[in-house]
Write a structure and sequence with these properties.
Elements lengths: L5 H14 L2 E3 L17 H5 L2 H8 L7 H6 L2 H14 L6 H12 L9 H9 L3 H12 L1 E5 L7 H9 L7 E2 L1 E3 L1 H5 L1 H10 L10 H18 L3 E6 L10 H17 L3 E5 L1 E2 L12 E2 L5 H9 L5 E5 L5 H10 L3 E3 L9 H15 L16 H24 L7 H20 L4 H5 L10
Parallel strand pairs: 1-2, 2-3, 4-5, 5-6, 6-9, 9-10
Antiparallel strand pairs: 7-8
Bound molecules: D-fructuronic acid and zinc ion.
Length: 432
């Protein structure tokens, strides 16, 4: 039965967006097996690197070393006092903490940090993973799995229980961005490599990648790249991409995900918060897609300035799938701008958002906040279409939302959408 009025359209769009199960295609979350590498709870929420950066802005007298010498609780106390009590917490990262507390049913008005801490003390990791997935409407996430991270590698080498809610992604930044030091680690792990990219070395790098693909079964291989990333390029990175990454990804049938525009450690004293952004060259994305038609590419770019070019590039290459409002773009004003442009240029052949969660609890806010915006933009687009006389049904809106919240990603991968097979529409108290 087609939708008859704009009021009905608004209600159906909001309800459908709120209940469409989500595949979150890029996060820094981990299964329970990874122990303390999975971050959760109020103190991890408050010490998220976005809030660390914001806190230092109000403390010119605070030495970085003094802050890093504090305990996690002391850091969280300072951040709470500075960003939530001494100033109104309306920055997106602060608002997110409040949304999490609200969605957990805690008394936000009390501003009682001690009571929030008491709440989390009563939960086990497994219980909280179940709770957050249930409340968030996210049914599955993709991790960021880095074989070069010692603590994580140890878990993989010990063996880990699969959790169908957590997919893997093989992250290879040290291989592509720091080969001058990384080659020695591969050698230490028994691969026949040297710094010079001899045929034997290249073959051994391919073996390394295949070994980890075998171990992890990743949805894709991923790397973050500087704004200077160029392709093709007569460089170590250019050769590693052409002679190792792309052939192995093609053989494994998985995309190569390029996350471009990060200027690492512009302020090293801030730790994870010390990275910044730079304008990239989207022609590198066009060139790699054009010159490797049998490879699939996922791409998200960090600078707001590059979004229109990247969206147009996606129109040119069907082996390119654009995703997310990444990092410094993950703010309502920019999410709306990017989502409007993407819907107008790509329709549903895009994955408009990922969460990039580093703390499990953030699934509750990053998706609630984005759903509000995606619903608003979708309503406007459907409204424009209805004005031409075209009739839309609630089934078609459900189909489109399923595509946007992961379906298009799974189709791009050539893999079944776990949400389609579940069939169950997630009922939960989504964003109002
Ligand atoms: O490279 C990445 O995966 C980035 O998302 C992270 O390094 C970054 O710190 C982040 O979490 C941004 O949201
Ligand atoms: Zn990330």
């Amino acid at each position: 039965m087609p939708i008859q009025t704009k009021e009905e359209l608004r209600q159906v769009v909001q309800e459908t967006v709120n209940t469409t199960p989500i595949s979150d295609i890029h996060t820094h979350l981990f299964t329970e097996d990874f122990g303390s590498i999975l971050l959760w709870g109020i103190d991890e929420l408050l010490t998220y690197h976005y809030l660390v950066a914001e806190t230092f802005r109000f403390h010119p007298e605070l030495s970085y070393d003094a802050f890093w010498a504090m305990s996690k609780t002391e850091q969280a106390d300072l951040i709470w006092q500075t960003l939530f009590l001494d100033h109104t917490p309306y920055s997106e990262a602060c608002r997110g903490v409040l949304t999490v507390l609200n969605r957990l049913g805690l008394d936000v008005e009390s501003r009682d940090l001690a009571s929030y801490r008491e709440y989390f003390k009563k939960l086990t990791t497994g219980e909280y993973i179940d709770k957050v997935f249930e409340l968030s409407g996210v049914t599955n996430v993709c991790m960021t799995n880095d074989p070069f991270a010692d603590a994580e590698r140890a878990v993989w080498e010990k063996g880990t229980e699969a959790d169908p809610r957590f997919h893997t992604a093989l992250r290879i930044d040290p291989l592509l961005n720091q080969w001058e030091t990384t080659w020695a680690r591969l050698k230490e792990w028994g691969y026949e490599v040297e710094q010079e990219l001899t045929e034997t070395t290249l073959k051994s790098i391919r073996s390394f990648l295949k070994d980890w693909i075998e171990r992890m079964n990743p949805l894709y291989m991923a790397v973050s790249l500087p704004p200077t990333f160029a392709y093709p390029e007569a460089s170590v990175r250019g050769r590693l991409i052409d002679e190792c990454i792309l052939p192995v990804a093609r053989e494994a049938g998985i995309p190569f995900a390029m996350m471009i525009g990060v200027r690492k450690k512009v302020n090293p004293a801030l730790g994870d918060a010390g990275d910044s952004v730079g304008k990239s060259d989207v022609s590198a994305v066009e060139n790699i897609c054009a010159q490797n038609p049998d490879n699939k590419f996922l791409c998200t770019i960090l600078s707001r300035d590059d979004q229109h070019e990247l969206t147009v590039a996606a129109r040119k290459f069907r082996n390119l799938h654009v995703f997310g409002c990444w990092w410094f773009l993950n703010n309502p004003s920019i999410i709306e701008e990017m989502t409007r442009m993407r819907f107008e240029l790509l329709g549903a052949s895009v994955t408009p958002q990922h969460s990039d969660c580093r703390v499990l609890d953030q699934l509750l806010y990053k998706w609630d906040h984005s759903r509000i915006i995606i619903a608003k933009v979708l309503y406007d687009k459907y409204s424009d279409v209805m004005d031409t006389g075209w009739k839309i049904t609630r089934e078609e809106i459900a189909r489109d939302c399923a595509d946007l919240f992961g379906g298009s990603f799974w189709k791009f991968l050539g893999k079944p959408d776990p949400n389609a097979s579940s069939g169950a529409e997630k009922k939960y108290a989504g964003s109002r």
